[in-house]
Amino acid sequence: MQAPGPAPRRLLVLGALALLAVVLGTLLLVRADTGLSTRRATVAGVPLTEVRQPGTGGGDRRPGVVIAHGFAGSARLMRPLADSVARHGAVAVLLDFAGHGAYPAGLPGAGRDDERARAVLRHDLDVALAWLRSRPDVDPDRIVLVGHSMGAGAVTRYAVDHPEITRTVAISLPDANDVPPGWAGRLTVVVGGLEFPDFRRAAGAATAGGPPGARERVVAPGTEHISVLFAPRTHAATLAAIPGRPGGPPPAPLTRLAGGGLLLLGLGLGFVPLASLLLRGPPPPAASAGGPRSRPGRWLAVAGPAAGLGAVLAAPLPTDRLPLAVGGHVAGFLLLTGVLLVAAYRRFRPRRLPAGHARRPPRAAGVAAVLLGYAVLAVALPLHLGFTSTAPVGARWWLLPLVTLCCLAFLLGAELVTEGRGVAYAAVGGLAVVVLAAAAVTGLAPGFVLLVVPLFAALVAWQAAWAGVLRRRDAPWWLPAAVGAVVLAWPIATTLPLT
Q: Considering the entire predicted model, what is its pTM?
């Protein structure tokens, strides 16, 4: 029997590594739940998740902690904090605010200062607190509120109006004006050392003044707006705010995140042997020196103006008509940029598919269906289990295909203009990220875009890597864009708030 050649051997090794990462990630996710009891309920429309140690239903009453996420977050994003709280003897309740996670109702208003949005956040906190106080083993006199970003402002304002709250922990508080100068409540403000200056200034101003010992400022070094949630310093500050809590193990905030990350890595690597198994065509033909391919730099001369014009045109368009905050603008920008890229390609190369991409037989439809299904699994499952909610609810079901089409238009345009050159294709995606960030800085795009640019850049890099895998296996010219559109669109459509 002949031994497998170098290429099959590499694929076997890659498949084994992918399987190992998936197994280790699954074990870490199981470990994160070990020793904890989780109960989910929907009360007055608000999805609630209660986390506690089993066996705390009788005897002495326990402190209770309500944990609120930020804009574009979810209860799942805050779950590591609930794990730490529960392992130290308190009862934690997580909630999804309207428009987030599993709550399909829209969040009204366009910003944190909108009174309609504030009223909805206050109502949702009322529901979560009423549920927590109804637990027979929870001490209503030892209630702590914890919030991140938008949720930090919401819990702080709530505590100002409800002096019975024992202590409030505000992580990445956006606005110090949420803390009245004469307020006597007990407040801990946690801020990441690498956050934007406005957040650091708000943390300093919010903790200035007040009664002696009532306000504390904690800096989590080396963290920004999202990673601050997983910093041991943040978890320690939260636990220190819980009155009369029994001891517990040191916080392990990265267990769930690491499990989801390994699962993501394993499924990402597994795409390579799967694509190799399904696409066994001949390698793409090499372009001759005198062939009809365009000059290597022409894609840049086309992509730069297309992305810039796309950002300018997206600014006045009514992209906020889509019930998806921020995501509607991003989808509109990608659609416009993609249309401009396709138009430029048609102008210069009107009758030819990208060089090196074969026209595939009808079997390609079945292969595409398998790879697209795998892409959904690879992006949605790890993020949902280890990071934040990515399950479609409500309007997200019809927003998902719409956002996917917008992403597809952009990626098809990039594929055509770069003629399938992997580095150039990735660079067009990177250029779009830079232009979108610049648009947010100049006011052409929502300012919140700046906070999600690193995640968007990671998704662009991910889909570019998969596109390279497909091209090396002579996939149909449109398949890299189709698979990449799923990778980009699923997180955009399922994590950004419904309005």
A: 0.92
